[in-house]
Design a protein that fits this description.
Largest sheet: none
Distance between the termini: 34 Å
Structural class: mainly alpha
Helix content: over 70%
Number of helices: 11
Strand content: under 5%
């Protein structure tokens, strides 16, 4: 399967999983008011939508020879995003999320396989930024939210989605190590220490640059 088709399938799957997450919220969870250090479900959806839309907007700039913004302090930027969308209604946030997904899918559909390999930040190809913000980012945050409310079944199911589906995108050691590193992070949040350590050990062997 071509990388473009795989990416479109992954982004679509993340949208589906986010909808299931939102549809499954209780009234109390929908009404919850988050804080900058303890996001509500609505804050999570807005956060993921923001970064998805940002990447969708930046892709044409990069393809035309421009550059995307680089952040030295993501925590500061995420705090700003939290404040920007914190008081939005659920209708506003879900509409924003749909818009972001539509923009990213639209950009992907217009791109060639060669476009996807164009370098972006730190010489990483565009496809890695797409899968990062269009799929992995959402899956990680949803899994973490499930874990925090004690729904370990959904948390584990989503964590598993950070493994083989991503590993199949690229056989290079650098990417395989990155996938295993991220899987280790997610497993550790689930309390699966032994599995996390095994993934981390493999990740560092494949991609020594991750040691730092």
């Amino acid at each position: 399967m071509a990388k473009k088709e795989t990416l479109l399938n992954l982004v679509t799957e993340a949208v589906k999983r986010e909808k299931e997450f939102v549809d499954g919220l209780t009234g109390a969870e929908r009404a919850a008011v988050g804080a900058s250090d303890n996001w509500s479900a609505k804050d999570v959806v807005a956060h993921c939508a923001y970064w998805k839309k940002r990447r969708a907007v930046e892709i044409p700039q990069v393809l035309q020879g421009g550059s995307a913004a680089v952040f030295d302090d993501f925590d500061h930027e995420n705090d700003r995003i939290f404040l920007e969308y914190h008081d939005k209604s659920w209708d506003d946030v879900t509409a924003f999320s749909r818009e972001a997904a539509h923009l990213l899918v639209g950009q992907l559909q217009q791109m060639s396989e060669e476009d996807l390999e164009r370098p972006w930040q730190d010489d990483r190809p565009i496809w890695r930024m797409v899968v990062g913000n269009g799929y992995s980012h959402t899956i990680v945050h949803l899994a973490e939210h499930y874990q925090q409310k004690g729904d370990m079944v959904h948390a584990a199911e989503l964590t598993a989605m950070l493994g083989q589906p991503l590993a199949d995108l690229d056989e290079s050691p650098g990417w395989q190590g990155t996938v295993k590193y991220n899987a280790a992070c997610s497993l550790s949040l689930l309390g699966e220490k032994a599995a996390a350590i095994n993934e981390l050990r493999d990740a560092l062997a494949l991609t020594p640059a991750l040691v730092d």
